[in-house]
Specification:
By secondary structure, this protein is mainly α. The protein has helices spanning 10-13, 16-19, 26-29, 37-65, 72-99, 104-108, 123-132, 153-164, 168-177, 189-210, 216-235, 239-247, 255-266, 271-305, 317-326, 331-335, 351-357. Bound molecules: protoporphyrin IX containing FE (HEM).
């Protein structure tokens, strides 16, 4: 039996009366109307709406990953939802072009009315950062005070709470740590793999030593990097060395999770590992797109206000520039590529394990 529902009017459903009454330029209030302030308000509001959607997706993914055993179907859903976030992020970057149709002089018409308001006080942006896993100790501090102190009491409470909750980074780490297939029942997979990577790093060293195009100084820098790659790779298999790297903030993901992520990357062609690989891939995309947004926003700010301080009181584009590298979250997933080897050099997996990684109805 078909249930009937009362008719809905478009404008009521979307509460347009409310939504379209929320654009109130300060310049009108001060009786010096600035044409571009409307654009400035709308662009920020659209951002906040998209932030709300991103939080909605992140919360649902967080819920799915809280279980000890995650239903494989949920991984597919998580991948789809993170992909939705990345599509939104692309829009967020594109939108800056619309705002840039306002020139720096046009902005000056109303900028002073906004002090000390700033995107720095976007509590939804801070929520997103915390929900993804940006840790307080990794944040750039400005004026020696914590970012949440510039928020209202109501928003500060929400942010402080979000800092206590488990983040996407931590959930993914736990999920990776639980990955089966990492114990090889007597098979020395990591020994064979380590040997192959060691020779790859040695080959790279030879290339640096014999490259005639390098000055002595550049050669030294590259040799140091090569040495560091070797040390970091060795540390992957040495509990103490890894703990030391972690202590100094050189890595964030646990040793076990890193090995699992490496294995997933290497054997992603195996059917069972394909979805986990997709998940790591979209997380990397998301991190990259946030970094892109930070970079684009910083450039726009430089163009708009030069080297003036921000309305929020920071050093403006200099502060924003520092956050670009420092506020990356899934940086370990990017660094994994240092230890990837060509498919043709991958150690063969024991037959039983390969069978487990395939589909049950595999012809093998
Ligand atoms: C004329 C356009 C804009 C200018 C001149 C500008 C300027 C700035 C400046 C100088 C900061 C550093 C904090 C401060 O001292 O105020 C900042 C931070 C920020 N802005 Fe903008 N902004 C603009 C547009 C936007 C838009 C459209 C958004 C979208 C929501 C946004 C979001 C943010 C966020 C989230 C931060 C904090 C970044 C962080 O701490 O990592 N801004 N902005």
């Amino acid at each position: 039996m078909n249930k009937t529902y009362p008719p809905v009017y478009y404008s009521d459903y979307l509460q347009l009366n409310k939504l379209l009454s929320c654009q109130v330029p300060k310049s009108n209030e001060y009786l010096r109307p600035a044409h571009d302030e409307m654009l400035f308000i709308i662009v920020h509001q659209v951002y906040e709406l998209w932030f709300k959607q991103i939080i909605h997706e992140l919360d649902s993914i967080n819920k799915m990953f809280r279980d000890e055993i995650i239903d494989e179907r949920n991984i597919g859903t998580a991948v789809a939802r993170i992909q939705r976030i990345t599509e939104i992020q692309k829009l967020l970057i594109e939108q800056l072009h619309v705002l840039e149709t306002m020139t720096p002089l046009d902005f000056l018409e109303f900028r002073d009315y906004l002090i000390p308001a700033s995107g720095f006080q976007s509590f939804q942006f801070r929520l997103i950062e915390n929900k993804i896993g940006l840790k307080s100790e990794n944040r750039i501090q400005y004026n020696n005070f914590d970012y949440y102190n510039s928020l209202s009491e109501e928003h500060r409470k929400i942010i402080l709470e979000s800092m206590e909750n488990i983040s996407l980074f931590e959930l993914v780490e736990k999920w990776l740590e639980r990955t089966p297939f990492l114990s090889f029942a007597g098979y020395n997979f990591w020994d064979v793999y380590k040997h192959t990577v060691d020779s790859m790093i040695d080959d790279e060293k030879q290339i640096i030593l014999t490259n005639p195009a390098l000055s002595e100084k550049k050669r030294d820098v590259q040799l140091k990097q090569n040495e560091m790659n070797k040390e970091n790779f060795d540390a992957l298999f040495d509990d103490e060395k890894y703990a030391e790297l972690k202590k100094h903030g050189k890595v964030r993901l646990s040793q076990k999770a890193t090995l699992a992520a490496l294995f997933i990357n290497l054997y992603r062609d195996e059917p069972i590992l394909h979805l986990p690989f997709m998940l790591l891939s979209v997380l990397t995309d998301m991190d990259e797109l946030f970094t892109n947004w930070r970079y684009r926003h910083m450039l726009m700010v430089h163009r708009m206000i030069g080297s003036k301080v921000g309305t929020g009181g920071s050093s403006g584009h200099t502060y924003l520039m520092q956050t670009i590298e420092k506020h990356r979250v899934f940086i370990d997933l990017f660094n994994l590529s240092t230890y990837l080897i060509p498919r043709s050099s991958l150690p063969a997996l024991p037959g039983e394990l390969e069978k487990q990684l395939g589909f049950n109805y595999s012809h093998k």
